[in-house]
Amino acid sequence: MRKTGRPFNETSLAKLYKSHKVTYRNTDTTWRMNRGRQVMVQSQRQDFARELLALLESGKPVIMQDETAMQIWTTLGKMWQPMGRSLPVKVNKTRYPGVTIFGAISNFMPPVFTSGTSTNARDYQRFLEKLREKVPPNITPVYVFDGAKAHTVDASMALLRSFATPMQLPPASSKLNGIEKVWAVVKQYFRRTNARITRIKEVSEE
Questions:
Q1: CA 167 to chain centre
Q2: DSSP code of 85?
């Protein structure tokens, strides 16, 4: 880059990019849907939200499940891109030492957490077995989950149906899952305490 003699900082870099019609905005890391698909999924989300709200208001036992990865890799949330179009983002697939936390919250019992190496069927089914032990035998809760492959393989679904009624989220609808709020708090705690992977596993298993 040509030297101008002016201080090179975030502000001057922003001006330079904008002068070349490049803008700083969210990276497009989600899968893309055509317009018809977007309308259909939006309708599914609305129906799902109404059904879930009705279940909760009626006092029906509901479990909300998801998992989150800790200290594996970082994906850019924003980057400089040409105006009007998104650039493909290459994600580093090298798995540095990390852990996946499986969790479930509900309106009738304490949260349940386990840890694993990744979102694989074996670790997920181990989580389901622990969850089944915690659910009172006289209760068959509704179980809210997403369509991750580990969740929907035959063995996982058979184990789930042995103690709960499945209620799968529409595609790309994590905001409808109440446990998403929990992960923000969990990650903030471990970030603030600078916890090691072994400590994360210990806490998740407590």
A1: 17
A2: S
Residue 47 half-sphere exposure, CB side, CA atoms within 13 Å? 11
In terms of residue numbers, what domain contains 124?
50-73+95-206
Answer whether residue 39 is part of any domain. no
Per residue in 82-132, pLDDT tens? 666 665 655 555 545 577 889 999 999 999 999 888 889 999 999 999 999
Instruction: Say which amino acid occupies 165.
Output: T
Task: Map residue 172 onto helix, strand or coil.
Answer: coil
CA distance 147 to 64: 13
Check if the beta carbon of residue 150 is closer than 8 Å to that of residue 183: no
Burial class of residue 64 in the structure, from the number of CB atoms within 10 Å of its CB (0-12 exposed, 13-18 middle, 19+ buried): buried
100: domain CATH number is 3.30.420.10
Asked whether the beta carbons of 23 and 16 are under 8 A apart, the reply is no
From the centroid of its chain, how far is CA 189? 17
**pLDDT of residue 22 exceeding 80:** no
Cα(187)–Cα(195) distance, integer angstroms: 10
What distance lies between CA 122 and its chain's CA centroid? 19
Specify whether the CB–CB gap between 160 and 195 falls below 8 A.
no
pLDDT number for residue 9: 60
| Structural domain total, the chain | 1
